[in-house]
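hiii so um. not sure if this is the right channel but i have a protein structure encoded as tokens and i wanna go backwards to a sequence. like what aa goes where. can anyone help
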């Protein structure tokens, strides 16, 4: 099924605003008159292609905002963003469009609050958790978290309304300190064995891949990775606490 290029392109200008928005809209419209973009399933079969395109566009906007937060966009950061879309199944002309969108987005300043608000309208809570994981991957692409990146991540967490405990757990995946496994399970080193087990049961249920299977293979894969991280953290804590 072909995308209605000009109609979709005309609706994208608001993301960037001003003259650049019009340029991007035309670029997007021309592209979709020639090719079909692989859609990301959102909310089941009733989702339409326009919604998928809005989801993709705002996702790139958020990720590029993080990439630019420290004053420069590194090759490593762009590669992380591209790899995320490759893992979603993008290739060929579809991936070329993503690369073009990344390039265009790197040239303008976005209203992060507005972009996050729109992304929230087109995403489920599970998808917003996946977004935060990719955001951290981009932020840590150069092996360090810049203060501006950390501030922006906290803004994103608030804008897309991610629960504080969930955000804390996801951040724990990227910590290098000795309490990393405890942060992943949202507990402290002083937590009792019963608290460890309780947190593990809750998180295993929350992040089980079956919970997001209806969203498509790409989100099931992300959930599976999170599920494995939780299990690994639990096993390490079990060894340390000897239970």
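sure thing!! here u go:
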């Amino acid at each position: 099924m072909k995308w209605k290029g000009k109609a979709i392109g005309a609706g994208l200008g608001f993301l960037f605003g001003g003259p650049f928005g019009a340029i991007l809209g035309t670029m997007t419209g021309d592209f979709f008159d020639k090719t079909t973009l692989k859609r990301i399933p959102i909310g089941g079969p009733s989702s339409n292609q326009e919604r998928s395109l809005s989801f993709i566009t705002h996702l790139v906007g958020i990720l590029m905002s993080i990439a630019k937060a420290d004053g420069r966009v590194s090759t490593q950061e762009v590669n992380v963003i591209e790899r995320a879309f490759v893992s979603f199944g993008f290739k060929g002309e579809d991936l070329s469009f993503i690369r073009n969108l990344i390039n265009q987005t790197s040239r303008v300043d976005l209203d992060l609050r507005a972009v996050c608000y729109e992304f929230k309208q087109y995403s489920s809570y599970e998808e917003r958790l996946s977004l935060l994981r990719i955001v951290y991957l981009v932020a840590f692409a150069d092996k360090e978290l810049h203060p501006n990146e950390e501030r922006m991540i906290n803004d994103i967490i608030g804008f897309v309304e991610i629960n504080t405990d969930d955000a804390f757990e996801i951040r724990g995946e990227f910590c290098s300190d000795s309490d990393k496994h405890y942060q992943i399970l949202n507990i402290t080193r002083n937590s009792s064995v019963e608290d460890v087990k309780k947190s593990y049961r809750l998180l295993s249920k929350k992040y089980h891949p079956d919970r997001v299977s209806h969203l498509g293979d790409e989100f099931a894969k992300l959930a599976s990775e999170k599920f494995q991280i939780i299990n690994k953290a639990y096993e390490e804590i079990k060894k340390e606490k000897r239970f």
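oh and The two ends are 55 Å apart (CA to CA).
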